[in-house]
Amino acid sequence: MIGQYLFIFLLSFSLLGQQSDVTKQVMRKHPNGKPYVVLYFSNSTKEMVKEEVFFANGNLQWTGTYKNEMENGVWKYFYENGSLKSEQQYVNGKEDGICTDYDSSGKKIKESHYTKGKLVKEVKY
């Protein structure tokens, strides 16, 4: 039991340490004052590591991460109502992996399989 609490404490401490290396900057705001473009920069390297873009209603429009100034990792795009529109995998600025598209009700409508930016397979539902 003590081991469990120690693990949770160490995990929380580790996550806090990771977050402290990043500075959030609101770059643009909507006319209503809500954030429009928010960028996150590494304090140690000064590189942009994450981007978030919001609709005027405050819902997330898209978010994704960067590595070496290129899209890297999972990028998610949303409808204005907040439901997921698509999820894409990037490696070194190119789509790589399965990219999934959804309709506004959340139903999967397409899967696109990419390798190093090249479409290799597409499945429509």
CATH fold naming: Outer Surface Protein A, domain 3
Stretches with pLDDT under 50, minimum 5 residues: 1-17
The dominant shape is flat
**What is the mean pLDDT?**
88
Number of helices: 1
The number of domains is 1
Element order: H for helix, E for strand: HEEEEEEEEEEE
Number of DSSP strands?
11
Structural class: mainly beta
Instruction: Tell me which CATH architecture applies here.
Output: Alpha-Beta Complex
Gyration radius, in Å: 18 Å
Distance between the termini: 47 Å
Largest sheet: 11 strands, antiparallel
Tell me, what is the CATH class?
Answer: Alpha Beta
Helix content: 10-25%
Estimated share of beta-strand residues: over 45%
What does this structure look like?
With 125 residues, this protein is mainly β. Residues 1-17 have low confidence and may be disordered. It has 1 helix and 11 strands, in the order αβββββββββββ. The chain has a single domain, classed as Outer Surface Protein A, domain 3.
